[in-house]
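Sequence in, structure out.
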Amino acid sequence: MSELERIAAALERLAPAPLAAPDFAAAEAFVWQTAPDALLPVASVSRVPLDLLVGINRSRDTLLANTRQFAKGFPANNALLWGARGMGKSSLVKAVHAQLIEEGAALKIVELQREDLPSVGRLLALLREAKERFVLYCDDLSFSHDDEHYKSLKAVLDGGIEGRPDNVLLYATSNRRHLMPRDMIENERSSAINPGEAVEEKVSLSDRFGLWLGFHPCDQDEYLAMIDGYCAAAGLEIDPVILRAEAIEWQATRGARSGRVAWQFFCDLAGRHGVST
């Protein structure tokens, strides 16, 4: 055997074997990990029922209809859920998936971490070969000044020369409408020879999402309605006057109102009354 043949054989032994497709029937949800690449099944997804998500009716109905279209094999749009913290963006994605599973849809959800975006091409190649349909879910998506990961995201949104796999849809959540820091956009606009071209590539990333669903801070009535819904679902009966006073005091100590704050208050309340959530 020649020297080149020995080197080639050694490299082949060191190269990782092609990633085998997982048993997608084993779970409804998976998490993508790298080093080594693997799709890990999730036995139990942390989520709340769709009807407990209060104050986001328009976003709920729009995302549910879009996902239902996709699950049935019809055209659907990638979606960017952006806006206020704690207002149910990630909860809505998981709740919509659960609702469609209850309706009998053969739909899987795959969570992709932002830092693993450079590997998304390998993930898409794996999912492309599967017969199932997938919602690719990226939570808390945003990019910093020197972050090049946003270029990898275009592989999901546009798919390059191959196109996005027909059986894959991307749902991303972010606190930022354009996924980039506002000061980064303004700095590039002010210092560039052609301000429009300087920011077009970065700002146009969010334009590639067919659906933009905005989430805004809730008012006090919506905040209290969320808590009432949680209590009703858990069968927890509290004097309405006491419940309202405690809920308002809780949000005052947090300095904010949101679905997350409402859930945290309910968890404290249920724990004090010995009720499981």
